[in-house]
Specification:
By secondary structure, the chain is an alpha+beta fold. 31% of the residues lie in helices and 33% in strands. It contains 15 helices and 33 strands. Strand 24 (493-497) and strand 25 form a beta hairpin. The longest helix is centred in the N-terminal third of the chain and has 20 residues, at 4-23. The protein starts with a helix and ends with a helix. 45% of the residues are buried.
């Protein structure tokens, strides 16, 4: 505990430091702030070093330089400056908090907790240390201790918006939505511009379905924090609203049914879980074959999965799915050809083959990526010219069926696998999405054609789910620990594998789709409402499909006869002819709206519930 003499001495040291800093006729705090606004890191570095020499007992120049270096991505140099700040004024809690926040941003919550604890020992009521401890405990997953720390912060500073925001975040993480919303509202009543409260309250309202109120708060947040990881999450619709952990028995390679009702999972042995009832069971395969890297057809009737041939080479094969019987029929199967992966095209007419090879004239030749047309088994290879990375694997489609995303690698560095986007004809130069010298695998593209989810190797082992825009911009470097991401048919959820079972996250935020779609029931009929949130006119069309309880499409589906011009800010409404009667009742209606570029949105309508 600091004595009165210690506190008095500290005040004298700080007063001397300020006088010394101004003795040379320079207001360093103001000039450093001006250089920071200009983004002039060189000038900031020079001024902070001059300031530190003029006021050796003042921690502020080292803190200012450390923050500037952190923003520039120079973490090691920033760490050095914060440590020098601690040496300059060992009785100040502020440098310890800076170290704690740096460790927290680098994914080191244990080290951050030590620094925040040290800061609190120096100054028990130092609010930044208390709030930093809350964030570090949440990052570590210790929700109970974080909640206790946040409650102490509120008791210590009941008029501080940040304390109430921290408490709201703890309630949110603990699954207490009402308490979280109340805490965020309290924070906003104290400070209408509190960023954590704006973010938290928008997220809470969106999860409740209050889209208009949530969007207002998201816009206010973006005006005040237009850059950074959180801003990227909001702008691209990557904010996690909820997390659903499926039973531990549901593991490996999640794949969605075309209507979003089921997830097929497994490696060697496959199973299916109904997301509404949570019932799950294994699938019996004719002949007891072991299946790998499966995919579900757009009409729900078939599965393509890899089998191992007698000579050991992998071959994707087609199987008839009888979900109601829990069976995959392979009596009439015929291998599509050698490949590691097979993925149905968006229209279901072809299979995208990865790491493929063909035999011609008795010679085996690798073609990498190609598309096999199911009508005639004709193969169209996808051109690729990259001598350093000739190998391509784990390819997936974009929703328009015109491009593919995949990873490429070379023999010199097999664990260095980078993601690319390429057209089917190879006429356009491929776009590289990653450049991190690690293994990036399993890319998949959201239904709006904008977001790519993939798994990247972690330095200490394991993999993490990452997000990036398909144009290579933006991105969330570590969404969650996991593997094998898969977007839902409506693009609002992402499933991925974890050791505890498959996790499903639901996303929110502003989103980037140029077209939005919403379904409404009126007098027993279904109507599609499409809107144009952009400032440009668009030509749009829509397609709908009906599915039964077993996720099999009923009939061929329907589509608009002509495209419609949707002006900026306008809405268009279409009636949907939902099948009635017959042997199979409609459970889900899937509605897709696309613009002239093949980009749009999908709505999954629970018709069984809506039509009651």
């Amino acid at each position: 505990m600091m004595t009165k003499d210690t506190i008095s001495g500290l005040r004298l040291v700080l007063a001397f430091s300020v006088l010394a800093a101004r003795a040379v006729g320079v207001d360093y705090a103001a000039t450093v702030a001006e250089a920071q606004k200009r983004g002039d890191l060189g000038t900031v570095n020079r001024l902070c070093n001059e300031w530190a020499a003029a006021a050796p007992g003042d921690e502020r120049p080292r803190i200012a330089l450390g923050r500037a270096l952190t923003r520039a991505g120079m973490v090691d140099r920033a760490l050095e400056q914060f440590e020098l700040a601690c040496e300059a004024n060992p009785l100040s809690a502020a440098p310890r908090c800076e170290l704690g926040m740096l460790f927290l941003e680098e994914g080191l919550p244990d080290e951050a907790i030590k620094e925040f604890a040290q800061a609190s020992r120096l100054q028990a009521s130092f609010l930044p240390a208390m709030l930093g401890m809350v964030k570090a405990l949440l990052a570590k997953g210790d929700v109970a201790r974080a909640l206790d720390a946040a409650q102490q912060a509120v008791a210590s500073a009941s008029k501080d918006a940040g304390a109430h925001s921290a408490l709201g975040e703890c309630y949110w993480t603990a699954g207490k939505g009402a308490e979280a919303e109340s805490s965020f509202a309290k924070a906003l009543s104290l400070d209408a511009d509190d960023l954590d409260a704006l973010f938290g309250q928008a997220r809470a309202l969106q999860l409740k379905g209050q889209e208009a109120k949530a969007e207002e708060l998201w816009q206010r947040f973006m005006e005040r924090e237009p850059a950074g990881t959180r801003a990227s999450m909001v702008r691209n619709g990557w904010v996690i609203l909820s997390l659903d952990q499926l039973p531990k028995g549901c593991r490996k390679c999640p794949v969605w049914s075309p209507d979003g009702r089921h997830i097929m999972y497994g490696y060697e042995r496959l199973g299916v879980i109904d997301l509404r009832t949570r019932a799950h069971r294994g699938l019996k395969v004719t002949g007891g074959r072991k299946l790998f890297f499966h995919d579900w057809s757009p009409d729900g009737r078939s599965v393509v999965a890899q089998i191992r041939m007698p000579e050991g080479r992998p071959n994707p094969c087609l199987f008839d799915l009888r979900l109601s019987e829990g069976a995959l029929d392979g009596d009439k199967f015929e291998p599509l050809g050698e490949a590691a992966f097979g993925r149905f095209s968006p229209d279901g007419t072809g299979i995208l083959m990865s790491a493929g090879a063909s035999v011609r004239g008795g010679h085996r030749a690798s073609y990498g990526l190609g598309v096999i047309q199911l009508s005639d088994r004709g193969l169209q290879s996808i051109p690729w010219k990259n001598a350093q990375r000739p190998g391509r694997n784990q390819a997936n489609w974009t929703p328009d069926g015109l491009r593919v995303v995949f990873h490429a690698h070379g023999p010199g560095a097999p664990k260095d696998r980078q993601l690319y986007v390429s057209t089917l004809d190879g006429e356009e130069p491929p776009l590289r999405l990653t450049d991190n010298s690690v293994m990036n695998v399993g890319p998949c593209v959201s239904v709006d054609g904008v977001s790519v989810a993939y798994a990247a190797a972690l330095g200490g082992g394991g993999t993490a789910i990452h997000l990036v825009r398909i144009d290579g911009t933006g991105g969330v470097p570590h969404l969650a620990s996991g593997d094998r991401p898969a977007w839902s048919p409506d693009g609002r959820r992402l499933a991925y594998d974890t050791p505890r079972g498959i996790a499903v996250v639901c996303f929110g935020g502003l989103g980037v789709s140029p077209v939005t779609v919403h379904a409404e029931a009126k007098a027993g009929a279904l109507f599609v409402v499409a809107a144009n949130p952009t400032e440009m006119d668009q030509q749009i069309s829509f397609r709908w499909e009906a599915f039964g309880d077993d996720s099999v499409r009923i009939g061929p589906g329907g589509e608009s006869e002509n495209t419609a011009v949707l002006k900026a800010g306008e809405r268009v409404e279409w009636p949907v002819d939902v099948p009635t009667g017959g042997d199979v009742a409609v459970s889900t209606v899937k509605i897709a709206v696309r613009n002239q570029n093949g980009v749009g949105a999908v709505e999954l309508v629970d018709w069984a519930a809506l039509s009651q």
